[in-house]
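Subject: Bulb-type lectin domain-containing protein structure
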Amino acid sequence: MRRHLLALIMMFSGLLLSAQNIYNGQDLQQNRKYWSANRQYYLIFQNDGNLVFYNRAGSSIWASKTQGRGVKASFQDDGNLVVYAPRNGVAFTSNTSGKRANRLAVQDDGNLVIYSNSNALWASKNGSDNGNGNGWGFRGGYLNPGHKFTRGSKVFSANRNYYLAFQNDGNLVLSNNNGDPVWGAGTDNKGSRAEFQNDGNLVVYDSYNRAVWTSNTSNRGATRLDIQDDGNLVIYAGSSPVWSSGTQRY
């Protein structure tokens, strides 16, 4: 009898684990798999402190890159998805607080999305610009550390009045929505790739892997790169700016 009861409990627990939505105010249990409804994808806060989104084959689709640092993961009451480091430090944030986010969806299409009702605020898939939008994950006007730029793709400010692009000529440029440059790294005909690195440094490299421009913000606690509505490009450590383009329009 006890064996049958245990089997029923385990089966019921499995059904709970396949829930597609995680609602705000919920901590993610460590090493628990949060499955998509079709059970082809799952989100897990691993024992190593990394929050990772996998497909059923065990291949990583997205990660918070917080291994060795994360001690707690939470989809908070304020709608922010956060991985905390020791002493309440922030190792990763979706920067969705105050935007009325109310659910984190583990979707059947292999995308992890934070919604405010039916409005997507953040997503794990970072598609490039197709002329109608600025790509999943870029709608809030910011980038997280670890982002590698794709030539020609545009990362817009939230109000869509400004965008940052790594141009085909190798220059990293902030422009207004008319295409007029506001700021540039001055790496035209020199830049081969651009990256907002995990160490918080924004860098343009040449074809020999030499830095031809850098924000000099490595290891200063940078948590995001903001393309702001006021036309300023800012690297923040929490709420404190550590670098800016100085191009704000009043």
